[in-house]
User: Fold this.
Amino acid sequence: MKPKLILCLALVLSGFLIGCASTSMPRTSAIARAKPFVVALKAYHRDTGDYPQQLADLRPQYLPVDVPIYDNSDARHSWILNYQRVDQNEYKLYLDSSPCSQAMFTNGTFGAGYGPNYR
Assistant:
C-alpha cells in the first residue's frame, strides 16, 4: 500500500511541476500580442521611409491609444513590450513576460524565445 501512495504522490507532484513549467504564454500568443505594433511599424515605415524613435510616435495615427504596451494586472503573467530602432530599415521588439521570459522580433519576425514561456 505504501509504494502505491508514494507513486500516487509522485505523479501528482510531477503533474503540478509540469503544469507550472508549461507555457502560459506560448510563441503564438507572443506573436499575437506584438502584431498590432508590427502592423503599425510597417505602415509608419511605408509612409516615412524610417522607423520611429519610440513606440509612442505611432500613436494615434498608426496605433490606437487603447492598445497596451504593457500589462501588469496579473503578477504571475505580466508582460511589457520594448522597442529598439536599429536604423531606418531595422527594428527589434522584445516581449518580456513573467516568469523570466523574453520573445525577440526583428522587423516583425519572431526570432527567438527564452525562458519558461517559450520552451
About this structure: Residues 60 and 66 are 9 Å apart (CA to CA). The chain has two helices and five strands. The first strand starts at residue 70 and ends at 71.
